[in-house]
Design a protein that fits this description.
The protein is an all-beta fold. The protein has one helix at about 10-15; strands spanning about 5, 50-55, 65-70, 70-80, 85-90, 90-95, 100-105, 115-125, 130, 140, 145-150, 155-160, 165-170, 185, 190-195, 200-205, 210-215, 235-240, 245-250, 250-255, 265-270, 280, 285-290, 295-300, 305, 315, 330, 335, 340-345, 355-360, 370, 375, 380-385, 395-400, 410, 415-420, 420-425. The protein has one domain (about 5-425): Methylamine Dehydrogenase, Chain H, CATH 2.130.10.10. About 0% of the residues lie in helices and about 45% in strands.
Length: about 425
């Protein structure tokens, strides 16, 4: 039997010693990396004047997701100067004269800023896509520490109590459209994905010192340019008889031994690249998206060694598949939403579609599940809440102000929603 394990052991100890803060969201898409918190009971309806426990303005802008641990919230941000939106090589991009890359810690109950640390001052940073930012990778927290990655600009470990710098490293890369992959912690390791247009590899650092323990190049890529080699997926750890770090990238999904970086298996998914969606685990399968060109969603059995064959593929589909957001599995069903806002419910074991419904606008954040409900978030900061069921039932539609691209975080009875300007705590 295998299961997804991403939450650091020290976090579990913290939860056991602090039952009042039973639900933490310490990394991208929560402890299990799939956006699910079945025991949570967040609000079904809200607005700017209803069910807002607090709303605070954030310094700068970022597309990283808020994370929570105990009584604190952590997020990264980029304070920008001289931003200009322009076309670069056909892409909708933005440049800046200067960015200040920071980590902010807030009090969970009130939204009050406890500390704010400037980590990197970058004059004339590489351009990023208009839908991206200079602070997009989501940090990961454990008892006493928070790890923040800004892609090519650097990676840091901070004391979560006061923001004091513990260590700092830099692994430069040409992202082409900005950083996107989030780090994860497992045991004493911090995993980084560096899939740029000039170089592609996965690395593990000693989380205590920042020392590079291993760096494994990606498999050879058949691509006409570096732009077709980049990717932005966040890894997931599968524990079982053979623990695997599973990382989608351009053309290949690869599983690595966590302590050595040795490749366990790889599978060729075609010419997909620029993958923003991250893998999830359920029913003994790995679910992943294939990114740009014609995005597909695959379900495979993570069994075997070297190059896996088509016999490992359980199902795949092209129906309304996202490039940016990630799916979630609830019971026997899998849910996902395309970038243009078509939500889908399908059988997780067979891929048979139960329903597809339009959410009314682009959806770039990943869906969340809590208490029998699915939460889909549109780019215009409207959220559609539906029943998690094989029959579609819309429960509510809720509007906030601003632009919403970062995936929200769940609390016991709350949702933490980040727009381009503010952080909301939705709940009583």
């Amino acid at each position: 039997m295998v299961r997804a394990v991403l939450v650091p052991f020290a976090v579990l100890l913290g939860l056991l010693s602090n039952p009042a803060a039973a639900l933490n969201w310490p990394q991208f898409r929560g402890s299990s990396g799939d956006g699910c918190a079945p025991s949570a009971d967040p609000p079904i309806s809200w607005s700017e004047t209803n069910n807002v426990a607090w709303k605070v303005q954030l310094p700068g802008r970022g597309r990283s997701c808020p994370i929570t641990l105990g009584d604190r919230i952590f997020l990264t941000t980029a304070v920008e100067q001289g931003v200009v939106r322009k076309k670069i090589e056909g892409d909708d991009m933005q440049t800046a004269e200067h960015v200040s890359l920071r980590t902010v810690c807030l009090e969970r109950a009130t939204g009050k800023t406890l500390w704010e640390k400037t980590l990197f001052d970058v004059p004339h940073p590489d351009p990023v896509h208009w839908l991206n930012s200079w602070a997009t990778p989501t940090p990961v927290a454990e008892q006493g520490r928070v790890y923040c990655d800004f892609g090519t600009h650097g990676t840091v470990c901070l004391d979560s109590v006061d923001g004091k710098l513990i260590w700092q490293e830099k692994f430069p890369l040409d992202h082409q459209v900005g950083p996107g992959s989030s780090p994860i912690v497992w045991k004493n390791l911090l995993f980084l994905v560096r899939d740029g247009r000039n170089e592609q590899y996965v690395a593990a650092l000693d989380k205590n010192t920042g020392k590079l323990l291993w760096k494994t190049p990606r498999p050879p890529l058949k691509a006409s340019s570096g732009n077709l080699k980049k990717s932005f997926s966040t890894p997931i750890v599968l524990e079982g008889t053979e623990t695997q770090v599973i990382v989608p990238g351009a053309q290949w999904v690869v599983a690595y031994e966590p302590f050595t970086g040795k490749e366990i298996w790889r599978i060729n998914h075609g010419s997909g690249f620029s993958i923003g969606t991250s893998p999830i685990l359920a029913h003994g399968l790995v679910y992943f998206g294939t990114g740009c060109m014609k995005p597909q969603l695959w379900a495979i059995r993570p069994e075997g060694h070297e190059t896996l064959s088509e016999s490992n593929v359980v199902w795949k589909t092209l129906k309304g598949v996202p490039v940016m957001s990630s799916p979630t599995v609830v019971g026997d069903e899998i849910y996902w939403v395309s970038d243009d806002g078509i939500a889908t419910c399908a059988d997780a074991r067979s891929g048979q579609v139960h329903w597809q419904e339009r959410m009314g606008g682009p959806c770039l954040a990943s869906p969340l599940f809590a208490n029998g409900r699915l939460y889909f978030f549109r780019q215009d900061a409207k959220a559609i809440v539906v029943k998690a069921d094989k029959q579609f039932e819309r429960l509510s539609e809720n509007a906030l102000e601003g632009t919403l691209i970062a995936t929200p975080a769940l609390g016991d009875r709350s949702i933490y929603v980040r727009t381009d300007t503010h952080l909301y705590c939705l709940g009583k």
